[in-house]
Amino acid sequence: AKLAVLEADLSSKKADYQGMIDKVADCEQKLKRAEELIGGLGGEYTRWSESAKELGE
To answer: How many domains does the chain have?
Structure first.
């Protein structure tokens, strides 16, 4: 009986572990996308600054 309880607990913990692995992978993907977006916006900042200077002249 005790073994069955421990096996059920182990199974539950393995499922929790897999859920955490999936969340980590999801967060890594979101972080990668965010870094790409920030990098792209940096280039836009330069372009907008140049456009603002031209409009100011």
So the answer is: 1
The model carries a pTM of 0.64
Q: For residue 23, what are its two tokens? A: 């969340």
Q: Give the list of residues 6+ apart from residue 54 with CB closer than 8 angstroms, or none.
A: none
pLDDT, one tens digit per residue, over 5-48 is: 999 999 999 999 999 999 999 999 999 999 999 988 888 888 88
Residue 28's domain comprises 1-57
DSSP 50: H
C-alpha torsion sign, points 27, 32, 33, 34: positive
